[in-house]
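Sample entry was shown:
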Amino acid sequence: MRVAMIGAGYVGLVSGACFADFGHEVVCVDRDKSRIAALEGGEIPIYEPGLAELVAANRRAGRLQFAVELGAAVKAAEAVFIAVGTPSRRGDGHADLTYVFDAAREIAVALEDFTVVIMKSTVPVGTGDEVERIMREIRPDADCAVVSNPEFLREGAAIRDFKHPDRIVVGTQDPRAREVMRELYRPLYLNRAPILFTERRTAELIKYAANAFLATKITFINEIADLAEKVGADVQDVARGMGLDKRIGEKFLHAGPGFGGSCFPKDTLALLKTSQDYEAPLRIVEAVVAVNDARKRAMARKVANALAGEVRGKTVAVLGLTFKPNTDDMREAPSIPLITALQDMGAKVRAYDPQGMEAAKACLSNVTFCTDAYHCAEGASALVIVTEWEQFRALDLRRLKTVMARPVLVDLRNIYRPQEVARAGFIYESVGRRRP
């Protein structure tokens, strides 16, 4: 099939490259001329494992192209995806749909034969109705169907998630649109990926409800971790005991410094705004947002406690800046409030991340960025693991001890065994476990 992907950001580029790999002819369109020029030159603007190779292979095969103007791509397409950004609107937390509505207007002008316009961006309930209204207003004669097809991609594992999805959600009651969507995802039939057809508004709400529930699981286990520390229990064993219950499941029960990234913070806020607009309060989600924000700030106090409150003038080394491993995404990363809080306490901060250094420089100041974990630890009174990159899972503790001013390790991801670190001569602080 011929596909136009409007937006060459994270979701658009990953989705476009994967559809091309299925054998479809895809044109990714983006207004950002520098981004398109970089992509045409073989440069990938985001870090995602395997994406550069996937884009290059489909470029060579002629199935993946890039463009700045959408007119020609839309006219030739049977399916047009809207995959533009929907950031939180300043001041009120609502999803900013400016780019979505702009794309809808441009698509409407370019439509010719029957076309399925598919909302891939994460949008509040009712956005599909408004997109259809805008398009009908501009082109009453247009033969098209507006469909919701939310994405469920995890940064760092997006290609696998696209090709081996738990489910594919499609919101439409148009029989022609259903057939187009089945054909688009037909290569996944071998994987037996279930396609759930629903009404459009239901599909839009599924995306927000899923993200809010996962954010709730993270926040719940983080609060249990705080209790575990007080009562002398081990939160990792608690999580394991909970996760073995098939009704609960083990995923997203890993205690840490709180959730961040491009989805959970933004989507929980947007869902709350929708609930307020419809006078259907979501008290649990409200608590999740509040607890998560407070937790990120509390992590700096955990570092201070490990240093017996003596933070001013000390050097703190931070390993991991991105909100999760295998990405360069710094949006809402827990490292940001942690570092700024440590600086407010008078600490000097050194930092290292395998992929997020350039992005971090744009949102952090007065930080010494280092070349590797051991360079970062030089002269530090405490080493803090914030992001669980694989490179940090087997550090040479003896070597660290020789370069640090004080042997203090604060492990906010629980990737080390307390007794092992204690035997190496470190003061060790983790999350939801007793200090050895």
